[in-house]
Write a structure and sequence with these properties.
- The structure is a single chain.
- The protein is α+β, with helices and mostly antiparallel strands.
- It folds into 6 domains: 100 residues, Rossmann fold, CATH 3.40.50.20; 157 residues, 2-Layer Sandwich (D-amino Acid Aminotransferase, Chain A, domain 1); 70 residues, ATP-grasp fold, A domain (Dna Ligase, domain 1, 2-Layer Sandwich), CATH 3.30.1490.20; 116 residues, ATP-grasp fold, B domain (D-amino Acid Aminotransferase, Chain A, domain 1, 2-Layer Sandwich); 88 residues, Glycoprotein, Type 4 Pilin (2-Layer Sandwich); 71 residues, RNA polymerase II/Efflux pump adaptor protein, barrel-sandwich hybrid domain (OB fold (Dihydrolipoamide Acetyltransferase, E2P)).
- The chain contains 18 helices and 36 strands.
- The strands form 9 sheets. It has an 8-stranded antiparallel sheet with strand order 14-13-10-11-12-15-22-20, sandwiched between helices. A 5-stranded parallel sheet has the order 3-2-1-4-5, sandwiched between helices. The protein has a 5-stranded antiparallel sheet with strand order 25-24-28-27-26.
- The longest helix has 17 residues.
- About 3% of the residues have low confidence.
Length: 632
């Protein structure tokens, strides 16, 4: 059995793998970039090794640095998590060549399932249903045009080496084909270094259903039932659940049998996921699903499978990688209840899902999760800094119920008070998705969010009003022992009592009246006191940073203030300011590269540079202090 495991990843998946290792008595080694030096996965590991600067190509994608870290710490195995190098056959081979155990499928299986065209040829040979399309070697426009006419419009162009929704274009009619081909090839070459494409018949109202499979080195292959991942934004999953809503037993058997056939065809070992596209315009049937692709790794959404089967899939991975047999036979794997996962991201849905970075002021749930009905897989906690260099997902909320309605109610109730302050949060957006009639009825599909994005991303004004009203009531509550003249009861001569206070919600000051009744469907606000003048308030999953204006500080800010901070995440190109330097208001102190543009940061007032807190080339988060001034 493995004794010391190096986890070649970061964030919540690294922490989640460590949970299982602790239970099994396996030591863990974390790797980290300079941006993650103080990260949660580094703190939780038994050992940690820095493998490079913040950019992923210089750290988490450096296979040589990861293998060197494993050797230096005496690790005997490497777990890649998901993303980064998890589906890189060359890295898997290098791990094995270094005498280490690779916690994943054989490199040959990764390689065969990587290119989408090759994977579909293998699926067809195994008797797995595949959508009509073109997967030939010829890539000239004449060949592709003729193939498209045979398939019929609408259709999809897909990058052969694609992933993450990149290199995919929809073509509605013949006149659009050439332009979309050029665009898809260009994106595929940029993202994957491979511009080859394939064509596929478009399912216009698609559902995405996938099957969890597992194999061992003794020839055993099983499935652990299906997951529905149809709620997506730009082909990125948002909410996932197990089992799939409305799944008949005969269709489940046909789909899971097909997944096992494919896994057997490639000699699969370890955890894998066979993904199917489903025609959502019809009831689920044996002829309404087709093979999409196979992910040769552990999936982000694996916890929903764990909750409905009662199995620890990371433990299964470690057993199989150590040469052991699968813990259960197919007939012993039971499916019970319903589980749903929500991906908690540091992003602002109202601003086009703009990712955020910075220090987390408050993060967590109203009640401590029990791990069975409510599970919280996080890679960050209060006080941690979210870097701008990586994916915005920072935690996963997973809930369980005896049936889907119970799980949905638990999900929406928990999301209502999922608090993330200091960086933007998508929790309110997730709750609005889960509360929608389409998701509640299971009639949503892959394109549904895109069709309803404006409604789903709009923060209800009632949530804002409830948040500021809760702080106003808290501040104006009557205190014991005060004289009648000091009681904040809103008493006025010849007029109704009225209690008001000036507050700023996310920077905008307003006069707020306490005690105003909110509509019954507005969740009660969760108020967290961050400092004497700042409160994090979450209502319906939407978190507001509510502050009490301090007029002396506001006056100073009007005169310019003493701090020059990064207005957004980016890379510091140049730093003109030097300690002791006299500057005038408007002088350029630094130049920041962000959003593909250069931004000059000027001195807010006349003064002297007291200190410089960053250096050229450094990646900075929104709100990071760059230069501080003092009065001359």
């Amino acid at each position: 059995m493995i004794t010391k495991l190096l986890i070649a990843n970061r964030g919540e998946i690294a922490c989640r793998i460590m949970d299982t290792c602790r239970a099994l008595g396996i030591e863990t080694v974390a790797v980290f970039s300079e941006a993650d030096r103080a990260a949660m996965h580094v703190r939780e590991a038994d050992e940690a090794v820095c493998i490079g600067p913040a950019p992923a190509p210089e750290s988490y994608l450096r296979g040589d640095a990861i293998i060197a870290a494993a050797r230096a710490t005496g690790a005997d195995a490497v777990h890649p998590g998901y993303g980064f190098l998890s589906e890189n056959a060359g890295f898997a081979e290098a791990v094995v060549a270094a005498g280490l155990i690779w916690v994943g499928p054989p490199p040959a299986a990764i390689r065969s399932m990587g290119p989408k065209d090759e994977a579909k040829r293998i699926a067809e040979d195994a008797g797995v249903p595949v959508l009509p399309g073109y997967r030939g070697e010829a890539q000239d426009i004449a060949t592709l045009t003729k193939a498209a006419e045979g398939i019929g419009y609408p259709l999809l162009i897909k990058a052969v080496a694609g992933g993450g929704g990149r290199g995919i274009r929809q073509v509605s009619k013949a006149g659009e084909l050439e332009g979309e081909l050029v665009s898809a090839v260009r994106e595929a070459e940029s993202a994957f270094g491979d511009g080859r494409v394939m064509l596929e018949k478009l399912v216009e109202r698609p559902r995405h259903i996938e099957v969890q499979v597992f194999g061992d080195s003794h020839g055993n292959v099983v499935h652990l039932y299906e997951r529905d991942c149809s709620l997506q934004r730009r082909r990125q999953k948002v909410l996932e659940e197990a089992p799939a809503p409305g799944m008949p037993e005969d269709v489940r058997k046909a789909m899971t049998d097909a997944a096992v056939k494919l896994a057997e065809a490639v000699g699969y070992q370890g955890a894998g996921t066979v993904e199917f596209i489903v025609d959502g315009s019809k009831p689920l049937a044996k002829d309404t699903f087709w093979f999409l692709e196979m992910n040769t790794r552990l999936q982000v959404e694996h916890p929903v499978t764990e909750l409905v089967t009662g199995q620890d899939l990371v433990e299964w991975q470690l057993i199989v990688a150590s040469g052991g047999k699968l813990p259960l036979k197919q007939k012993e794997i039971e499916l019970n209840g319903h589980a749903i996962e929500a991906r908690i991201c540091a992003e602002d849905p109202a601003e086009g899902f703009r990712p955020g970075a910075g220090v987390i002021l408050e993060f967590g749930l109203l009640e401590e999760p029990d791990g069975e009905l409510v599970r919280w897989d996080a890679g960050f906690e209060t006080g941690d800094r979210v870097p701008s260099n990586y994916d915005s997902m920072i935690a996963k909320l997973i809930v369980y119920g005896d049936h889907r309605d119970e799980a949905l109610e638990r999900l929406t109730d928990t999301l209502a008070h999922t608090q993330l302050a200091g960086v933007p949060s998508n929790a309110g957006f997730l709750r609005r998705c889960a509360l929608s009639e389409e998701f509640q009825s299971g009639t949503h599909h892959v394109n549904w969010i895109g069709e309803n994005v404006d409604v789903l991303t709009a923060v209800p004004p009632e949530h804002h009003d409830a948040a500021v009203n809760a702080v106003a009531s808290l501040l104006l509550d009557e205190e014991p022992g005060l004289s009648p003249w000091a009681i904040n009861d809103g008493f006025r001569l010849n007029a109704p009592a009225r209690r008001t206070v000036v507050l700023a919600a996310d920077g905008e000051a307003e006069m707020v009246e306490a005690g105003i009744a909110m509509p019954e469907d507005v969740p009660f606000p969760l108020v967290t006191d961050i400092s004497p003048r700042r409160f994090a308030v979450t209502c319906g999953g939407d978190t507001f940073l509510v502050t009490v204006p301090e007029y002396s500080a506001d006056a100073e800010a009007a005169l310019g203030g003493d701090a020059v901070k990064a207005p957004m995440p980016g890379k510091l190109l140049t730093l003109v300011a030097q300690p002791g330097q006299s500057v005038a208001r408007g002088d350029t102190l630094a130049v920041l590269e962000a959003m593909k543009m250069e931004h000059s940061l000027a001195a807010p007032r006349d003064g002297v540079v007291e200190a410089v807190h960053a250096s050229p080339g450094q990646q900075v988060a929104e709100g990071d202090l760059l230069v501080s001034l003092v009065e001359e």
